[in-house]
Design a protein that fits this description.
By secondary structure, the protein is α+β, with helices and mostly antiparallel strands. The protein has one domain: Nuclear Transport Factor 2, Chain: A. Helices cover 28% and strands 45% of the residues. The radius of gyration is 13 Å and the shape is globular. This is Ketosteroid isomerase-like protein.
Length: 114
């Protein structure tokens, strides 16, 4: 898994598109922190992150992500996305270490759903 370009973002969201919790989890470090900012939910560590991922997949069956734009540096990323078919617009911002995600904060606006 390389973070040298935005290509890894496509691979990461493809795992979400497939609802593949095992593949998603491979992108995270052991000390991962996931935060869903609008709901205030925070998952820290692998066990909580897996529960978060599995819950998200169960709550949004058939969801795919359209990547609008991504910016990646050696240690950080930001991605704007649209969750389909709902049309929910949002973004993910986080940090990277050794090619894996160490933190991810999701920002979204339910008012964008038509």
């Amino acid at each position: 898994m390389s973070t040298s370009s935005t290509g890894w973002v496509t691979e990461y969201y493809a795992a979400w598109d497939r609802a593949d919790a095992d593949q998603i989890m491979q992108w995270f470090t052991d000390d991962i922190v996931l935060e869903d900012v609008p709901t205030g939910h925070i998952a820290t560590g692998v066990a909580q992150a897996r529960a978060f991922v599995e819950h998200a997949i169960a709550m949004t069956p058939g969801t795919t992500y359209e990547i609008v734009h991504s910016a990646v540096t050696d240690d950080a990323f930001a991605t704007e996305w649209i969750m389909r078919p709902a049309g929910l617009r949002g973004s993910s911002v986080g940090t990277i270490r050794d090619g894996r995600i160490t933190s991810n904060r999701d920002y979204w606006n339910a008012a964008s759903v038509r």
